[in-house]
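Apologies for my clumsy wording, but can you show me some protein sequence, whichever is easiest, together with the matching structure tokens, please?
=====
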Amino acid sequence: INSSDDRIMYMISQMKEAADEDRRLNQAGQAAVNKLGLLKLVIKQLNKHDLQNAFIDCGILGVLAEWLSPLPDNSLPHITIRTEILKILQIYPQINTDMLKQSKLGRVVMGLYKNTKERFSNREMARKLIHQWARPIFGLNDDYSAMSREERVDADLRHMVKSRKRRRKTEEDVKPEGEKPGDKNFIMRARVPVPSNTDYVIRPRSKIDNDVVKRPKKLAPKLEKLNQKLANKKKLTNPNSLRSSSVCLTGNKMPL
């Protein structure tokens, strides 16, 4: 065991003591601040990429699971502790299933992901960790959910080039014959259309100007409709309009 292993074991023992002390303080109804006071030193050491394997071999995953676990009163640890540890776990890609089961870290991270009281950003980091750890189980290589838009386009272009090469080779091997009038195998009738094998990767920009598009006219307000309806009703119920006129046979009372 070299000096770096000794320092790692000493730091892990400090982390365990801080976790035990925080549980005791929580049961006594006091503030659990020991892990929070040691967090800055822990994050500084865990960020050293050359010591990642040594940290895992010394059992750091079990201690991190203990730091992320709820306290005896079922309250979550400090938000800073949860956020910083989830960020650190993002840079540890070599965590396998056996390590997660032995350290119970996978169960703890899943609990944070399902906890509705957890901050949305932390739940999103927990979701990405779960997908990252589960992908080797299903034999998946590319995680499109964790890629940016540019990375997804590049991946699609790479696959598109391979597929086009395969299609070009197939088209060269099997050449169509008799496609023009006068050829030997030309058929004077319509054929079944062949589906296109084109790969659409880049979405074309819209050429429609939103200012030029005609918008539907606004409907009359409800008040105007109501006034028109009342006016029509008043016109129909007017007694002068419904009064019958008397007929004069001599024509003396006819208006001129």
